[in-house]
Amino acid sequence: MAAAAALLAGCAGDIAGEMSRNVQVRDRVMHSIAADSALAVEMTKHLLGNDALRLRVVQTVLADDRSAQYVLARIGHNPAAVDYVLQAAASDSAGREHLMTLLKGMQIAMRGTKK
Questions:
Q1: What is the pTM of this model?
Q2: Which of 8, 13, 26, 108 has CB atoms 3.0–4.6 Å from 19's, for a disulfide?
Q3: What pLDDT band is residue 2 in, cutting at 50, 70 and 90?
Q4: CA-to-CA distance for 73 and 35, rounded, in angstroms?
Q5: Residue 87 and residue 79: Cα distance in Å, rounded?
Q6: Would you give the distance in Å from CA 46 to the centre of its chain?
Q7: Residue 75 CA: distances (Å) to CA of 28, 41, 55, 63, 83
């Protein structure tokens, strides 16, 4: 029994190495995570819990057109998220200038539809 426990401990400790060396093992592990919504949420939280990994996850999501559109649509329907975006955009003079140009364009367009 001790030998089996030691063997399992050895395998578990080297899972990262095995995943990087063995494409089949990596695919099985990743498929298992993706197939189980609870595991997928747990892995997502793990990835987002680290600044460097969070950056890579966000860059990956925004690099995929469908994912980026989904995220932006969700932001557009969430007033607090829209506020965050506007605050970020207005954080420097170039962003503020761009925002003002957009808002002025919206005002002009709205005046044109009221006639």
A1: 0.65
A2: 26
A3: very low
A4: 25
A5: 12
A6: 12
A7: 33, 20, 18, 17, 9
Average confidence (pLDDT) over 52-76:
96
Virtual CA dihedral for 55, 60, 61, 62, nearest 10 degrees?
90
- Cα(42)–Cα(67) distance, integer angstroms: 19
pLDDT tens-digit profile of 24-49? 988 998 999 999 999 999 999 999 99
Q: Which residue has the tokens 């050895």?
A: 10
**Residue 92: pLDDT over 60:** yes
The C-alpha atoms of residue 11 and residue 107 are separated, in whole angstroms, by: 64
Cβ(48)–Cβ(55) under 8 Å? no
